[in-house]
Amino acid sequence: MEIGMMVFLAIIVFVLLYLIMLYNGLVNLKHSVAKHLANIDVLLKQRHDELPKLVETCKQYMQYEQSTLEKVILARQQVASAQASHDMKALGLAESGLRSSLGSLFALAENYPELKADGVFQNLHSRISALENAIADRREVYNEAVNNNNVRIEQFPDVMIARLFNFQAFDLLQFDKAELKDVDVKSLFGN
Fold first, then answer.
1. DSSP at 86
2. Is the pTM of the predicted complex or chain greater than 0.70?
3. Could you tell me the residue range of the domain that residue 31 belongs to?
4. What are the pLDDT digits (tens) for 137-186?
5. Domains contained in the chain, number
6. CA–CA separation, 95 vs 78, rounded Å?
7. Which of 47, 58, 104, 157 has the fewest Cβ atoms nearer than 10 Å?
8. Residues 6+ apart with CB under 8 A from 92
9. 52 upstream amide cis, omega within 30 of 0
10. Residue 86: predicted pLDDT
11. How many Å apart are CA 133 and CA 2, to the nearest integer?
12. What is the DSSP code (8-state) at residue 174?
């Protein structure tokens, strides 16, 4: 074989190996997004399982706050529905609603000293607060994985492989802009 043919074959092998590396990198990013979403799902399920216990505990003390308890239950159902459909926009909105209704519930609990002193309530409040923090942390990691995926499938030469094998962009998990505002504590207490 002549040198020209060997160089040509070496270039072909190099290009194929490079394309394989690009493809494998995109596959890795896609599965990273799925893994991080699954991690969020685990925490959402744990919180989902804790909320009925919290509502039942609060019902014993908060007979006059039925609408607040119903808002928590409805928001919980909306999160579960959005989570099941893997609709990130709906999940973000539902999460915002749930966080808002939980904030109202915890603020109203301040008006019930017996409830605040209840060990079950304290445990559930701590557990749900810890889950909220973990969800926020994992949401950040998920959004970073989504961003990495979305950038790579638009960059050259990755875009060629992404289009050829139909790699898709993912939606970020964003909460409602109201989540960023300060809480008006006076309005929660009706003053």
1. T
2. yes
3. 3-188
4. 999 999 999 999 999 999 999 999 999 999 999 999 887 765 444 444 44
5. 1
6. 8
7. 157
8. 173, 174, 175, 176
9. no
10. 85
11. 65
12. -
**Structure-token pair, residue 70:** 């119903």
Residue 71 contacts residue 51 (beta carbons within 8 Å): no
Q: What is the CA radius of gyration of the chain?
A: 24
Supply 119's token pair: 């060990």
Q: Residues 185, 108: contact at Cβ < 8 Å?
A: no
Cβ neighbourhood burial of 16 (10 Å; 0-12, 13-18, 19+): exposed
Chain CA centroid to CA 32, Å: 14
> In this structure, what DSSP letter does residue 179 have?
G
Span 90-102, pLDDT tens digits: 888 898 889 888 8
Half-sphere exposure of residue 181, counting CA atoms within 13 Å on the CB side? 9
Q: One-letter amino acid identity for 37?
A: L
> What's the token pair of residue 163?
């289009």
User: Residue 101's closest CA among 177, 182, 179, 190?
Assistant: 179
Whole-angstrom Cα distance, residue 40 to residue 63?
Answer: 33
Q: How far apart are CA 41 and CA 46, in angstroms?
A: 9
When pLDDT is cut at 50, 70 and 90, the band that residue 191 belongs to is very low
What is the DSSP secondary structure assignment for residue 166, as one 8-state letter?
T
- For residue 73, give Cα distances in angstroms to 43, 54, 60, 117, 120: 17, 10, 16, 23, 19
